[in-house]
Amino acid sequence: MKSSLVRRGGLLAAVVASVVLAGAAPASAAPGDGSAYGVKVDVKLLGQNAVKAGPFAAANTAGPTNSSLAKADVPGILTAGVINAEAKRDENSGAVTAKASTADVTLPLLKAALGDVGIKLVEAVCTATQKGVEGSAKLVGANLGSVGAVDAAPAANTQIKVGLGTLNVATIILNEQVKNPDGSLTVNAVHVKLLGGGLKALGDGDVIVSSATCGPAAPPMPLASGAGLWIGLGLLGAVAVPVGTRIVRRRSTQA
Where, by residue number, does the polypeptide cross the bilayer (predicted)? Predict the structure, then answer.
């Protein structure tokens, strides 16, 4: 009888331990990732060679988590001042944050269609938590030439058509938000899409200013590390100690 009680107590403790350690094992899902950059150009202008530049000041949760650049200049297409980008993951909560800001942006690419286009600051932010993924964009001092001023916090996927004569030559997308197949979200604060077609077209391709991608969030902190370990051990002790107490009491009674 005594050995049976001991075996039962040991079995229960082992079951509890196995549950705690099972919860402590890291999940098989990959940790949440994030990335950001300031400027990326991939265009083929009418009658000119293809131009590919960037991404400038690229950051990633895998490293480097921070990146900066004093200025960027892609002749005839874009100029920019200081660029800062960061992408970080909180190892305890699994939350991911990515952010990119680009200062003093001009787009000579659009001068023929809109006149002078300038934005003092272009910012994209993306955050992934256990509740979900969300993003936003901010434009400070934005003036799109003949289009005029735009909202500092444009609604997601705001589109502005750009015409040259009778042709629709480009689309400017503000606060572009793209939900990717893997569950992540990409926020492009400014995305200029050249549409090509026609003899008077500007060309085709894409210019992106301030981009941030993040999510989905990583699993929370594994139980087997940090505070999670102490919580697990506390749970084990809370169950195992009463079992041991009952065994001792029954031994004393039988004695």
Answer: 227-248
Selection from 96, 98, 89, 95 nearest residue 35 by Cα: 98
Q: Measured in Å, how far apart are the chain's first and last C-alpha atoms?
A: 12
pTM (2 d.p.):
0.76
Banded pLDDT at 70 (limits 50, 70, 90): very high
**pLDDT, tens digit (0-9, with 9 covering 90-100), for 116-131:** 999 999 999 999 999 9
pLDDT above 50 (res 199):
yes
Q: How far is CA 134 from the centre of its chain?
A: 9
Predicted confidence at residue 165, as pLDDT, reads: 81
DSSP letters of 134-198? EEEEEEES-EEGGG-B--SSPPTTEEEEEEETTEEEEEEEEEEEEE-TTS-EEEEEEEEEEE--S
Phi, psi (deg, nearest 5) at residue 22 = -65, -40
Q: Which residue has the tokens 């910012």?
A: 123
C-alpha span between 163 and 194 (Å, rounded)? 11
